[in-house]
Write a sequence for this structure.
């Protein structure tokens, strides 16, 4: 399944400083959900400090997740079933000072 994953607001620093990835997720029996994608990202793309991206089975507080420009809170968060060509964006709202 082909999707786009984007990072912004500093989240890209955890992913080799790349803001955009075109990803082909492998086929599996059950539909891909965002929760599955988070762990796939951790295993395949996350380069450093997983604690700054993930907390328990979700993203850390302070990371805004958009699915096709819609807040994932409106789309069942980690349980959203990913669709072909979805664009999933992770934006960090945490900034040092």
């Amino acid at each position: 399944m082909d999707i786009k994953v984007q990072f912004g607001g500093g989240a890209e620093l955890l992913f080799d400083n790349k803001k955009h990835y075109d990803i082909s997720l492998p086929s599996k029996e059950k539909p891909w959900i965002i929760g599955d994608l988070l762990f796939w990202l951790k295993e395949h793309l996350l380069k450093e400090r997983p604690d700054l991206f993930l907390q328990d089975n979700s993203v850390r507080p302070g990371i805004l997740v958009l699915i096709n420009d819609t807040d994932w809170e409106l789309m069942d968060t980690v349980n959203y079933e990913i669709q072909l060509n979805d664009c999933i964006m992770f934006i960090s709202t945490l900034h040092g000072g």
The first strand starts at residue 2 and ends at 8.
